[in-house]
Amino acid sequence: MKKDIQTLPDIELMVNTFYEKVQRDDLIGPIFNAKIQNRWPEHLEKMYRFWQTILLEEHTYSGSPFPPHKQLTVDQAHFDRWMELFTQTLTDLFEGAVAEEAKMRAANMAYMFMYKIEYFRNPENFNKK
Asked: Binding residue per annotation — 59?
C-alpha cells in the first residue's frame, strides 16, 4: 500500500526517482544532462530542499527557481513530458493529499515557467493592447 509524502526521505525518493527518469528520457534528458553535466548531486540536493519547503513546510530552500531555466531551448512539448514523468513518478510511489498537492504545484510551475520563457523570448507579443 502506498503512503503519502510525509518526510524528507519521501522527498528524496520522489526526486531521485523522477530525475532518474529525466536523465534517461529521449526528449528532455539531453537538455537536463547538457545543462547540469556532472553537477547532478548538487542539483538533487537543491531539489530536495525545494520540495521539502513546498510540500512539508520545512523552510530549507531559498532562491529563485526560474532564472536557471530562462535561457533553455524548450517548448511546450518539453514541459508536457516533464509533467508526464513527474506525475507518473508520484502516482507510482505515493497517494494522498500531499502527493496530489505536488502534482498541482508542479503543473502550476510548468505553466508559469513556459509563460515566462515565452515572455523573455518574445516580449513584443505580451505588450499588445
From this structure: no
Number of domains in the chain: 1
β strands within 9-81, DSSP E: none
* Local structure of 33: helix, strand or coil: helix
Residue 64 domain-assigned?
yes
Rounded distance between C-alpha atoms, residue 126 and residue 85, angstroms: 30
Instruction: Give residue 37's domain range.
Output: 8-121
Tens of pLDDT, residue by residue over 10-58, are 999 999 999 999 999 999 999 999 999 999 999 999 999 999 999 999 9
pTM of the full predicted structure?
A: 0.90
Beta bridge partners of 3: 94
Please report, for the domain that includes residue 21, its CATH number. 1.10.490.10
